[in-house]
């Protein structure tokens, strides 16, 4: 025998509580979020639209009341004849009904046009908000965090289409004033005409229909959320097929059939899941609620007919009751102006809120906007990584482990190390895209965290390995190295010359003004190596605009071997007096640097000049010799396929590395 409270009672209460909490979370809070957006559409416009919708809600009811009264007045008017008081009353009521009808026809498009204005204003304000939100982090940690990117993806989906936007949901919310005002007025009309039990029954039937409709839509949208991974895969496969990026490889490897099959299979899974969900979510509730609604509305109709048959209601009351019931029941369906857009907007706004929460959560440990200015000429003595330790957020792996590294001002320091050694991470810390987890980066002894990041970054010209190929003109691509100063064409040209790309750019159809994308009229695309030179020119432009530190992360990865040797031969010359940092995993490329640092396992394992390091016979010497031998044998995997005149280039490198 069991004793105590039956487990079912407690679990039923807990279940109810969970359902309630879930409903508040999914249906109430998101609606409040939509409501909070309304003021951004303009308070005056919102109030005007609300009043307009109130009127639009009442006009059809006025029409029904007028036509019902008209029906009741007909016998007396016909009896009295034209010119009688009853006839005049009939005419006046007819005019009233006509006015209600015409006003509805005139005001509905006005409401729609103003509603669109509300939609545009709200969407534009929200888009600006979302943009500001993503530009808010001083560092890039949040932008490299997958959860943040997922939330962002979900939030901006609302802006990627022109339906179902939060602005449209605001319009829909105001339009609901018309729907529900009409429902209340019709229930009152039914109550007055044929009695309150019928009125409440019809009102309940309409609300039950509405609940079924909206609840179904809510549950259905959950299916979409559960399928987000599949939808992402569809988007990815679509992009693979429809863009030129993967076109070569797909054909060379014969992947077209595989891609088409996979695309079809994922779509089929998604379609089947939605189909099953549609049946589950809509069919049973639809049948139950329709039955309930028909019973209640039918009951009210039958009751009205009985009243009429026994002479307990007037002709006017009967006409009013029947018309009001029919009109009210028509309010029990889907509201195209509100329902779908509200549901999608609720999902987007909830995702936007989660994005905000996630960014707040990630704020801890992120670079903060320091206030101090950067003294002119910094660094005058050195830039130093002072026992810097670092691991990426959400990762326990130590990338830098108390690293000590000094970049003497005005000299060229090279950091070399194998893939994954942490070289790019050093650059991210130097540019304050992340904050060290321990230790500090110091410029002339001052922790750079104290500087205003915007001012500090103007001081540092950085070109990353994955630099951006802006779909802008060649001149703009270079001048973006210092967007805070007006574009100087002479400087652009000089930077292009230093990077060895000026001649190629001037030969383009519009010279420096040629858009570097085939997506624009007169535009052209460049080769990988030419793009890399554009990026290098951007860094030179930053130097001309006042930057004192130059950081190039794998600047020659896309250059051919001969060009790489030539670039490094000139680089030290061109940047004399600049504090420069060259990052490379190719040991042979940095031998001309004043100072070479070898990073491995989060530590500096060796430092010195090329000759000193070779003489030391350590890590650097071993890897340098290994790579030089590979060059000499023409086996360097990164280069051997790039060359037309392979032998000549290999000789150039072999010569370069052994000089
Ligand atoms: N955003 C990130 N989140 C988590 N781990 C990261 C992130 N970026 C890099 N890492 C990890 O940090 C380590 C160091 O990466 P980093 O890019 O600094 O290496 P690297 O020396 O520049 O390599 P390569 O020569 O291949 O460019 C690697 O193990 C990498 O996987």
Automatic annotation (TrEMBL):
Region (Disordered): 637-659
Record's bilayer topology term: Multi-pass membrane protein
Subcellular location(s) of the protein: Cell membrane
Biased composition (Acidic residues): 637-649
Protein name according to UniProt: ABC transporter ATP-binding protein
Superkingdom assignment: Bacteria
Transmembrane segments: 37-70, 90-111, 183-209, 283-303, 315-335
MF-aspect GO terms: ATP binding
Keywords: ATP-binding, Membrane, Nucleotide-binding, Transmembrane, Transmembrane helix
Composition-biased stretches (Low complexity): 650-659
Transmembrane keyword on record: yes
A Pfam family it matches: ABC_tran
Limits of the ABC transporter domain: 383-626
Main location: membrane
């Amino acid at each position: 025998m069991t004793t105590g409270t039956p487990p079912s009672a407690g679990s039923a209460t807990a279940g109810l509580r969970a359902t309630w909490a879930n409903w508040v979370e999914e249906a109430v809070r998101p609606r409040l979020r939509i409501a909070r957006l309304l003021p951004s559409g303009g308070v005056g416009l919102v109030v005007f639209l609300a009043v307009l919708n109130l009127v639009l809600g009442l006009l059809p009811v006025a029409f029904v009341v007028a036509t019902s009264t008209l029906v009741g007045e007909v016998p007396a008017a016909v009896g009295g004849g034209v010119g009688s008081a009853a006839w005049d009353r009939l005419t006046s009521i007819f005019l009233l009904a006509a006015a209600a009808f015409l006003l509805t026809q005139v005001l509905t498009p006005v409401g729609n046009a103003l509603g669109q204005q509300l939609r545009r204003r709200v969407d534009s304000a929200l888009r600006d908000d979302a943009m500001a939100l993503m530009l808010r982090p001083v560092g890039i940690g949040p932008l490299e965090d997958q959860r943040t990117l997922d939330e962002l993806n979900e939030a901006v989906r609302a802006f990627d289409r022109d339906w179902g936007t939060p602005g449209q949901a605001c319009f829909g919310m105001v339009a609901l004033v018309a729907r529900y005002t009409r429902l209340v007025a019709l229930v009152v009309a039914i109550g007055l005409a044929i009695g309150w039990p019928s009125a409440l029954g019809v009102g309940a039937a309409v609300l039950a229909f509405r609940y079924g409709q909206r609840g179904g839509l809510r549950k259905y949208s959950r299916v979409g959320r559960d399928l987000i991974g599949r939808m992402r895969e569809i988007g990815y496969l679509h992009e693979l097929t429809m863009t030129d990026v993967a076109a070569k490889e797909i054909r060379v490897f014969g992947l077209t059939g595989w891609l088409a099959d996979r695309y079809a299979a994922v779509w089929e899974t998604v379609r089947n899941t939605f189909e099953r969900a549609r049946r589950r979510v809509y069919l049973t509730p639809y049948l139950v609620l329709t039955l309930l609604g028909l019973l209640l509305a039918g009951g009210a109709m039958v009751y009205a007919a009985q009243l009429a048959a026994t002479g307990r209601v007037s002709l006017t009351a009967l006409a009013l009751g029947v018309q009001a019931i029919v009109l009210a029941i028509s309010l029990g369906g889907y509201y195209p102006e509100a329902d779908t857009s509200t549901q999608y907007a609720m999902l987007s706004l909830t995702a936007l809120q989660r994005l905000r929460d996630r960014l707040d959560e990630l704020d801890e440990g992120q670079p903060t906007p320091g206030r101090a200015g950067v003294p002119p000429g910094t660094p005058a003595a050195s830039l130093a990584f002072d026992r810097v330790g670092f691991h990426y957020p959400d990762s326990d792996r130590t990338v830098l482990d108390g690293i000590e590294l000094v970049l003497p001002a005005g000299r060229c320091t090279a950091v070399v190390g194998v893939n994954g050694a942490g070289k790019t991470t050093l650059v991210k810390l130097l540019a304050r895209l992340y904050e060290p987890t321990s230790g500090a980066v110091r410029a002339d002894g001052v922790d750079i965290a104290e500087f205003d990041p915007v001012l500090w970054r103007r001081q540092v010209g950085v070109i990353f390995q994955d630099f951006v190929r802006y779909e802008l003109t060649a001149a703009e691509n270079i001048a973006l190295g210092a967007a805070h100063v007006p574009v100087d064409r002479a400087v652009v040209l000089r930077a292009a010359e230093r990077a060895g790309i000026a001649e190629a750019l001037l030969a383009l159809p519009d010279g420096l003004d040629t858009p570097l994308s085939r997506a624009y009229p007169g535009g052209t695309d460049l080769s990988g190596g030419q793009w890399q030179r554009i990026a290098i020119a951007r860094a030179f432009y930053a130097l001309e605009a006042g930057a004192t530190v130059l950081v190039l992360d794998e600047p020659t990865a896309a250059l051919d071997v001969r060009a790489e040797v030539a670039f490094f031969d000139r680089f030290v010359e061109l940047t004399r007096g600049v504090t420069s940092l060259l990052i490379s995993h190719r040991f042979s490329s940095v031998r001309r640097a004043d100072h070479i640092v070898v990073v491995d396992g989060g530590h500096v394992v060796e430092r010195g000049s090329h000759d000193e390091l070779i003489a030391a016979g350590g890590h650097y010497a071993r890897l340098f010799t290994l790579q030089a031998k590979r060059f000499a044998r023409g086996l360097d995997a990164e280069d051997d396929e790039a060359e037309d005149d392979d032998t000549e280039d290999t000789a150039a490198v072999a010569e370069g590395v052994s000089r």
